[in-house]
Design brief:
The chain is an alpha/beta fold. The protein has 20 helices and 16 strands. The strands form 3 sheets. It has an 8-stranded parallel beta barrel, surrounded by 5 helices. It has a 4-stranded mixed beta sheet with strand order 13-16-15-14. It has a 3-stranded antiparallel beta sheet with strand order 4-5-6. Strand 15 and strand 16 form a beta hairpin. The N and C termini lie far apart (about 55 Å).
Length: about 475
């Protein structure tokens, strides 16, 4: 099988000066565990505010990070690693967490892992290799728990990183069915020079409903000298004191919290957990300040609400598609609008702006963005309008339908639409009664782009109220 040589990429990576901060110590720490879709910047910052000592990112795959562009964002005060193909943020961090954030990477290749390490090491405090995730996508890619079956390969990855990076390297594993096999594996991995090892106290095939095995962790901890970070006790974690109880039960140096923190991150708070509305308020403010993706924000708030999603407020929340709409429910609508405008004024580039910039600067892409194509937007009445499908309870209320009926009522020709595509995003022009209308908000498909253009036309024709569109999150600015 052909293997790609990553060494040329590693050599081409920019040499960045390491920031001077104390090397991360993994002993006697409370740690936010790596959790997919949860461990993004706002939740990590909130965990630190609540009392966590170290915060892990969600698992980030090496191939996505290698292709990313490192881009300082002065408006937010962040460093963004951006996917140039669609403008999404793969990893966003800021100085508030630089000395405490550990990036967890999914990898099955030492050279790729090293390439990523060289790219990100000046922006993080530590790098962790996921060797415990039992999910199918990780296993099929030879990552996560698949590495438990290949200890030599796992050790090679860790040894490569430890010998060539300037930050501490760790890994996170699950226990093996035989406790002695677990001890032997951990001893082998510890010999590579890693700074600590996180251990989920369940086997690859066990799930949260199964009880953890703290006795195995205790045996491992007594067999090695490096710090052991205990994970897997969320089922019994309801208060701050429960974190230390699990740590002591496992004989571990530190404790790592996943699901208990996902449900209420204030579990790190020594003074006691906070009411969920207070937690959500704090979380949403961070999402606003750091321009967090609406779908990610919604997922995390859903985790906090749990059964409260079935209440009237919860059902209203489930219909939300924008950060503005979510914030309205927790009385943060004005703050969201004001802050988003401030960030825009300071030059914050949203996802669509990033994509458009990349498209315009990359002449090799097979896109029709010539000067003639861009001139199509001259003379067009444009507003930044997002089409939010959940706002319309029936197809008869959809903007295109309403505009079509409006034209028929007045005896005018029905509107027609033309669409411009930029990579994975779309923008449409609605031509009606001698005038052209468009939304400057790039949508993810052609149909939504046309609905957005129709919304602009209806607003300009006086068929919709501007305040209503602001309030429901459709009119962004």
């Amino acid at each position: 099988m052909l293997r790609f040589n990553w060494l040329p990429i590693i050599r081409q990576l920019p040499t960045m000066k390491m920031k001077k901060h104390q090397r991360l110590d993994y002993r006697n720490k409370l740690i936010l565990a790596p959790m997919v879709r949860v461990g993004t910047l706002p939740m990590r910052l909130l965990a630190l505010e609540m009392g966590a000592d170290i915060v892990y990112t969600e698992e980030l795959i090496d191939l996505k990070l290698i292709k990313s562009i490192r881009r300082p964002n002065p408006a937010l005060g962040t460093v963004d690693f951006v996917d140039p193909s669609d403008g999404t943020i793969i990893f966003r961090t800021c100085p508030l967490e630089t000395s405490k954030v550990v990036l967890q990477m999914g990898t099955s290749d030492a050279a790729r892992a090293l390439a990523v390490g060289k790219l990100v090491q000046c922006d993080i405090a530590g790098l962790d290799i996921n060797m415990g995730c039992p999910k199918e996508f990780s296993i099929k890619g030879g990552m996560g728990a698949a590495l438990l079956a290949e200890p030599d390969k796992a050790a090679h990855i860790l040894r490569t990183l430890c010998s060539q990076l300037d930050i501490p390297i760790t890994c996170k594993i699950r226990i093996l069915p035989d406790p002695m096999d677990t001890i032997n594996l951990v001893q082998k991995l510890a010999a590579t020079g890693i700074a600590a090892i996180g251990i989920h106290a369940r086997t690859r095939d066990e799930r949260p409903q199964h009880r953890p095995h703290p006795d195995v962790l205790r045996a491992v901890a007594s067999a090695v000298d490096i710090p052991i970070i205990a994970n897997g006790g969320s089922r019994e974690m309801h208060t701050f004191e429960d974190l230390h109880k699990f740590q002591e039960l496992c004989g571990a140096d530190s404790v790592m919290v996943a699901r208990a923190a996902q449900l209420n991150v204030s579990i790190f708070r020594r003074e006691g957990v906070l009411p969920i509305d207070e937690v959500i308020d704090k979380y949403l403010r961070l999402c606003i300040n750091y321009d967090n993706a609406p779908h990610n924000t919604k997922y995390c708030v859903q985790s906090i609400l749990r059964e409260l999603q079935e209440t009237p407020r919860g059902k209203r929340f489930l219909q939300c598609q924008t950060l503005q709409q979510i914030c309205e429910i927790w009385h943060l609508g004005d703050y969201c609008r004001r802050r988003q405008q401030e960030l825009k004024d300071h030059g914050n580039a949203g996802r669509a702006n990033v994509i458009l910039s990349e498209c315009l600067n990359n002449k090799r892409q097979k896109l029709d963005l010539s000067e003639d194509a861009m001139e199509e937007y001259e003379g067009v009445i444009s507003r930044k309008m997002a089409f939010l499908r959940s706002t319309y309870t029936s197809d008869t209320q959809l903007p295109k339908t309403v505009l079509y009926v409006h034209a028929g009522r007045l005896g005018k020709q029905p509107p027609c639409y033309e669409t411009q595509r930029c990579d994975k995003l779309f923008r449409a022009i609605c031509s009606y009664d001698g005038q052209r209308y468009s939304s400057s908000f790039w949508e993810k498909n052609k149909k939504q782009a046309e609905q957005g253009a129709a919304l602009v036309a209806l607003l300009e024709l006086g068929q919709l109220n501007e305040k209503d569109l602001y309030d429901n999150g459709s009119l962004i600015s």
